[in-house]
Design goal:
The complex is a heterodimer of chains A (523) and B (174).
Chain A (H helix, E strand, L loop, with lengths): L12 E4 L5 H10 L4 E4 L14 H8 L6 E3 L4 H4 L32 H5 L14 H15 L14 H12 L5 E2 L38 H7 L3 E4 L3 E7 L5 E7 L5 E5 L2 E4 L2 H11 L24 E8 L15 E2 L15 E5 L4 H7 L7 H8 L4 E8 L8 E9 L5 E6 L4 H19 L5 E5 L34 E3 L14 H20 L4
Parallel strand pairs in A: 1-2, 1-9, 2-5, 3-15, 9-17
Antiparallel strand pairs in A: 4-11, 6-7, 7-8, 10-13, 10-16, 11-12, 12-13, 14-15
Helix pairs in contact in A: 1-7, 1-12, 5-12, 6-11
Chain B lengths: L11 H6 L1 E5 L2 E4 L2 E4 L5 E3 L5 H14 L7 H8 L8 H17 L11 H10 L4 H13 L7 H4 L23
Antiparallel strand pairs in B: 1-2, 2-3, 3-4
Helix pairs in contact in B: 2-3, 3-6
The chains are: A alpha/beta (523), B alpha+beta (174).
Chain lengths: 523, 174
């Protein structure tokens, strides 16, 4: 049964956000007997509420608060008010994520050392390595039921995968399979196996895909140590004269403001809202925002080097049927500068329905060429490209004082320019993706630009030295010992892999640390 | 007769008598626009029937799908028949017609080749009128469940138990 804590209870850990970071941290702490108040800006939507309807679902669960964009990325032109496509609901973006759960590679924790000096890139080694995370990766994989781990079989390949796999083999790729997916390939944890519905991005109506919305949150609530407050939008984190945080001010669904006292605060609002909250919490003592002595809060915004390739064939594929991300090629994920860029990328199948294909195939496109491509929709196959992008100090989330959100607070502006390494990698991946489909008889291929960001990373980065970043290797802010960051904004660099597994892994590890430090009364 | 809005029980033959063909497949009469064979008709309340016919043609020229009938384009632009949009539509259609006249045609609807109409649209691609039309069509046309079958798209699958037993892996040619 869910707990209920008093606003004046200053013994609770307040977790802001209930997604891969916040939802998991809340549950893990609650399991250890720690009292947690989880504040979620959105409502609680569960599988019965999810919609097999792209725009309907978009309106139901997306984060649509005021945001602005700048920079040379095409998203700033095509979707100027929508830099990211993430979720505002219990479970956060684990409601709409595709389920790909890949461990980072060893060298991706040491990019400064391995990649060397890349002009214009603010590279830094993580203060942790793969070996330290491995036991926690194992816990995360077991929690999420990742296929091809823990004896769980892979998912069956759908039509889109079969085209992808055949093309991959023609190109000589070796690491091709149906992925390490946090989607049940057989019943597990009281949830059924995948029914090949499609619509993974709209929330899994069978609950076969792991989401903190219906796994970690109810598990945590069942301990009696976790209270989740929905429609609780945090406006500001407060602190005392000694510089320790003391609570958070939030608005409820009617706009009434409340102050929840806290012993520890963990911020997990995704990489746009988390730095924004720290910046909006500026005070006389911390005029540049909380935990910002390094000046790095909001900087080094990464979104992965992304793009897609769609292809038309003479015969039907019907790629919308079944798992949206149904397979992966990992051969290009290696670091091999002979390709003309540092870092690597993954190729993963992707399908969109007609409504989203029209919006994303070539945003702004029209006329006979565009319509001809849409006419082949039934015969299309598609893949998504996800690669490591370079952290740049000037790619950043700032406060836009000219645009206010519904609470009168400055909206975030998201500035992003591609680094030349990102562009070189994208061009390489576009060529490989097109070659893959050409090898199995494509009649047309379409190099498709990035969508609004689903992987938002790096804006409160982890660093060994306080001058280089915002948090230490535990996600604890360098400046304020009882203030933590628990989402993907901690990432020092982005790696080539989809980030959710690593966010969950860091949250499990962080829960151990917070429990230990609370027991030792250091926080 | 298939209608988008009621044509008040008028017979197809009667309807055809009351209108004038204005372009490929489109006809206008007093207070309505229709398919030239009267397979469908749509009343207009705020914009003129010839303005609506121009919007329908423009919609088709923006996203030309030859296997999708005009009634779906008409449905996609029907929202512009409002008190709010009336003046913007009139100005936009005037601009389209002026551009057509600049190329020696009577008006936009009388430009016979799609290539020439597309060229006129290309010339006003940055205008708010064009961008609003195009942006609205992305959902107005492609998010209409009735057009999905023309693309082979099957829409929601949960109520049918997904595709696990319905062909998620039935590709035979690869």
């Amino acid at each position: 049964m869910s707990a209920k804590f008093d606003l004046t209870d200053d013994g609770v850990v307040v977790v802001i956000g209930s997604g891969a970071g916040g939802g998991v941290l809340s549950n893990e702490l609650a399991q250890k007997g720690i009292k947690v108040v989880c504040l979620e800006a959105g409502g609680r939507h569960l599988p019965q509420d999810y919609q097999n309807d792209e725009w309907g679902s978009f309106g139901q669960i997306s984060w649509l608060d005021a945001r602005t964009t700048s920079g040379d990325w095409r998203v700033a032109k095509d979707f100027s008010g929508l830099p990211s496509w993430i979720v505002k609901a219990v479970g956060g973006s684990t409601v709409h994520w595709a389920g790909a759960s890949l461990r980072f590679q060893e060298h991706e924790f040491k990019t400064k050392t391995v990649y060397g000096n890349v002009q214009g890139a603010n590279l830094l080694d993580w203060p942790i390595g793969l070996s330290e995370l491995e036991p926690y990766y194992a816990k995360a994989e077991a929690k999420m039921g990742v296929t091809r781990t823990n004896g769980i079989p892979g998912l069956p390949g759908n039509n889109n995968y079969k085209v992808f796999e055949a093309g991959a083999k023609k190109l000589g790729y070796k690491q091709v399979h149906t992925g390490n997916m946090a989607i049940n390939s057989q019943p597990r944890g009281g949830r059924p196996g995948c029914q090949q519905v499609g619509f993974c991005f709209q929330g899994c109506k069978f609950g076969a895909k792991w989401s903190s919305a219906y796994v970690d949150i109810p598990e945590g609530e069942a301990t009696g140590n976790l209270e989740v407050r929905t429609h609780a939008h945090v406006l500001k984190i407060e602190h005392d004269k000694t510089g320790k945080v003391t609570g958070v001010l939030y608005a409820d669904k009617d706009g009434n403001q409340h102050l929840q006292k806290a012993r520890v605060v963990a911020v997990a609002g995704n990489s746009i809202e988390s730095p924004r909250l720290l910046l909006n919490s500026a005070s006389t003592m911390f005029p540049d925002g909380l935990a910002n002595s390094s000046g790095q809060v909001g900087r080094n915004y990464m979104r992965h080097m992304t793009a897609s390739v769609y292809a038309s064939f003479p015969e039907p594929v019907r790629f919308w049927r079944g798992t949206t991300m149904a397979g992966i090629i990992q051969d290009e994920a290696r670091h091999d500068p002979s390709r003309g860029f540092v870092g690597g990328y993954e190729l993963e199948t992707l399908a969109l329905g007609v409504p989203f294909m029209a919006a994303f195939l070539n945003p702004g496109g029209w006329g006979r060429e565009f319509a001809a491509a849409m006419d082949t929709y039934e015969n299309m196959a598609g893949l998504w490209i996800v690669g490591e992008d370079m952290p740049q100090e000037t790619n950043r989330v700032t406060l836009n004082h000219d645009v206010k959100d519904q609470y009168g607070l400055p909206a975030p502006n998201v500035h992003f320019d591609d680094h030349p390494n990102d562009t070189a990698m994208r061009n390489h991946a576009w060529r490989q993706g097109a070659a893959l489909y050409d090898a199995v008889g494509a009649t047309q291929t379409y190099p498709t630009p990035p969508y609004p960001s689903t992987h938002n990373l790096g804006t409160n980065r982890m660093s060994a030295k306080a001058s280089d970043g915002v948090v230490n290797k535990w996600g604890q802010t360098h400046d304020i010992s009882n203030l933590f960051v628990s989402d993907g904004s901690q990432f020092t660099t982005g790696a080539a892999e989809n980030p959710t597994l690593t966010i969950v892994t860091l949250a499990i590890r962080q829960a151990d640390y917070i429990a230990k430090e609370m027991a030792a009364r250091t926080i | 007769m298939e209608t988008i809005t009621s044509s008040k029980g008028i017979s197809r033959r009667e309807l055809l008598k009351r209108c004038m063909v204005v372009g490929a497949g489109l006809a206008v009469g007093t207070g309505f626009v229709a398919g030239s064979t009267a397979a469908w008709a749509m009343e207009t309340n705020h914009v003129t029937p010839s303005e609506m016919a121009t919007l329908i043609q423009m919609a088709r020229d923006i996203y030309p799908h030859d296997h999708i009938g005009d009634q779906y384009y008409a449905a996609a632009v029907k929202g512009f028949d409002s008190a709010d949009s009336k003046d913007r539509v009139a100005a936009g259609v005037d601009a389209l017609n002026a551009a057509a006249q600049g190329q020696g045609f009577a008006n936009y609807l009388s430009v016979p080749w799609e290539r020439d109409r597309a060229s006129i649209l290309r010339g006003m691609e940055q205008s708010a009128f064009f961008q609003t039309m195009r942006g609205n069509l992305v959902t107005g046309l492609y998010n209409n469940k009735e057009v999905w079958p023309f693309f082979g798209y099957e829409g929601e699958s949960y109520s049918k138990g997904g595709y696990i037993n319905r062909g998620f892996d039935d590709i035979a040619w690869i």
